[in-house]
Design brief:
This protein has about 280 residues and is mainly α. The chain contains nine helices and no strands. Helix content is about 75%, strand content about 0%.
Length: about 280
């Protein structure tokens, strides 16, 4: 398979993947985008199918909107750019797949059993399988060579490390207060455990590892940092929307948690914009 740019030259090796095997991950990603759209639309149209308590149902409502109007369109754009040989599109692609794995883990393991359960299973498994396939075929040398030497890796990497360690500190402090001082958790203990477990095992690990590797200009650092940063920016957007939904539904007083999540969402999005903006059209 040979793909050509508009100038008639071969692009970067098809978004840094092996040319002969790139079709399967693209098709799987298109299937993931379709499943996400279907799940979000059904969740918004039939909100009554969610069987959780009020504040949790409100979070699914906000999450479904972000999935439909932000995550799905971005995944389609990423796939389009990636097909044209864009490394920037590739980094956005794997970042969105990372977000899908993280996000649908909440639906699969956190939502009360409901009519959408099979969709959660298929979307989560397919997202994880697709991400593994893409990463297993990634030519990290191409990705690393495509970022300018002027990329502020220490600023972006340091930011990801600070956010990851800060998140870990918050969760572990609340856990210690509950376990050793008898203080109540912010939400029900089992719900707290799920969120803390997913954040500490997936989000914190990706942020710190990606930040450290990016700081050191490791070849894999660019990829892992993009995955961690993009999934974080998107989920912080989800939390911002959910904070607004909670206020609108009378579940929280304004401004609630909106200033915290909104600020972090803007900063993390800015960090990813800086990283992706330093991708060059041709590798060095």
């Amino acid at each position: 398979m040979t793909l050509l740019t508009r100038r008639g030259r071969p692009p970067l090796p098809v978004l840094a993947l092996t040319l002969g095997n790139v079709r399967t991950p693209r098709l799987l990603s298109a299937a993931v985008a379709s499943l996400m759209a279907v799940q979000a639309v059904l969740g918004l149209l039939f909100e009554g199918q969610y069987r959780d308590v009020g504040w949790i149902t409100a979070t699914w409502y906000g999450n479904d909107w972000v999935t439909l109007v932000v995550a799905v369109p971005l995944l389609v754009v990423a796939l389009t750019l990636a097909r044209q040989g864009s490394v920037r599109g590739f980094l956005l692609w794997v970042g969105l797949l990372g977000y899908d794995v993280y996000n649908y883990a909440y639906y699969l393991f956190g939502a009360a059993l409901n009519a959408f359960f099979p969709l959660y299973v298929v979307t989560w498994v397919l997202s994880a399988v697709t991400l593994v396939l893409v990463l297993s075929r990634t030519k990290v040398d191409v990705v690393a060579a495509s970022l300018a030497r002027s990329t502020p890796v220490r600023a972006v990497g340091g930011y990801l490390i600070v956010v990851g360690l800060g998140l870990a500190l918050v969760w572990l402090t609340m856990w210690a207060a509950y376990a050793f001082a008898g203080r109540a958790t912010p939400i029900e203990p089992e719900a707290f455990k799920l969120v803390a477990a997913l954040d500490l095992s997936m989000m914190v690990t990706a942020l710190v590892l990606g930040g450290v590797l990016l700081w050191r200009r490791s070849r894999w650092g660019y990829v892992i940092a993009a995955i961690a940063g993009i999934q974080s920016a998107l989920y912080l957007t989800v939390l911002s929307v959910n904070a607004w939904v909670a206020i609108a539904r009378g579940l929280a007083r304004a401004p609630g948690e909106l200033p915290v999540w909104g600020t972090l969402a803007l900063l993390t999005t800015a960090a990813m914009f800086v990283l992706l903006s330093h991708v060059r059209r041709e590798p060095a």
